[in-house]
Amino acid sequence: MDQIIALVFIGLLVYFVVKVGSFLWRIAGVLFLLFILYTYKDQMISNIQSFMTSPNLGGLWQQATDFVSNIWQTIVGFVSL
To answer: What is the distance between the alpha carbons of residues 5 and 58, in angstroms, rounded to a whole number?
Structure first.
């Protein structure tokens, strides 16, 4: 149930940012994206550096799915509060 609520929340956020077209909604969407990037920047940098030292495409796919899964679990945890 928490995952459905998180999915609805993300869907509504994307809908309002794209469809409403208001300047404030676009700013809110950009700020949210910057917040997500800032929160996970250390993890992204370490993943990029490890890929540059030894390119392993199978490992890259696993890391990408783990990264998306971690973001999803964080959003679900935030929404379920």
So the answer is: 32
